[in-house]
Write a structure and sequence with these properties.
The relative contact order is 0.17. The protein has 187 residues and is α+β, with helices and mostly antiparallel strands. The protein has 2 domains: 148 residues, STM4215-like (2-Layer Sandwich); 31 residues, no CATH class. The protein has 3 helices and 7 strands; from the N terminus they run H-E-E-E-H-E-E-H-E-E. The protein has a 5-stranded mixed sheet with strand order 1-2-3-5-4. Strands 6-7 form a two-stranded antiparallel sheet. Helix content is 24%, strand content 43%. Strand 2 and strand 3 form a beta hairpin. The C terminus is likely disordered.
Length: 187
């Protein structure tokens, strides 16, 4: 299972365990596409981007910054001004649940470790539906984690053999029968 999926599933569980007011179990580890038929309020947990750089050579590790989005969706039959306040109240509970544990719980996979989770930004979308008003609030967090390549030595050797070949060449120094190798890349 990829690190991002484990993080999404972990955050989903944290939010379910937090028992966010009025949300209950309406927390999903993916972006909600058909928002008209979903119960509200609801929360979607998804990722939109990730950057990384090599952190360590041996064992090979990467330093990654993942943009995690927690989207709150709620609706109200009237435009009485309470909908933005309701969504902000939900966002407050979400931020508290996430920032109270910036390591996002524990994970069984030992090939990555979360260093920190920080609040990054919030954006809003307000839709005037047929019978009700719908508001989406996307709360963005940056999750910094270190990951270790989990490829086995056998898998690595097979990958190398698939792309590289070693062609023996006679040595050019003296009368030696030793061989050197020329490595060529085959695409």
């Amino acid at each position: 299972m990829h690190f991002r999926k484990q993080i999404r599933n972990g955050v989903t569980q944290i939010l379910k365990d937090a028992n966010i007011n009025r949300v209950g179990s309406n927390v999903f580890p993916f972006k909600l596409m058909d928002t008209e038929s979903q119960e509200t309020p609801s929360i979607a947990v998804y990722t939109v981007s990730e950057t990384g750089s090599k952190f360590n050579e041996s064992p090979r590790m990467h330093d990654r910054d993942l943009t995690l989005v927690i989207e709150v969706r709620d609706k109200h039959p009237d435009d009485d001004g309470t909908l933005p306040d309701n969504v902000d109240d939900l966002a407050n509970e979400i931020e508290k649940a996430i920032l109270d544990d910036p390591f996002l719980g524990t994970f069984e996979n030992e090939t990555f470790i979360i260093e920190d989770t920080v609040y990054a930004s919030t954006s809003y979308q307000f839709d005037d539906g047929d019978d009700e008003y719908i508001m989406h609030q996307s709360i963005n967090f940056t999750v910094n984690y270190k990951s270790q390549d989990s490829i086995s030595l056998d898998e690595l050797n097979a990958l190398r053999e698939a792309h590289y070949s070693i062609k023996p060449q006679p040595a050019t120094i003296g009368d030696s029968e030793d061989f050197t190798g020329i490595v060529t890349y085959e695409d």
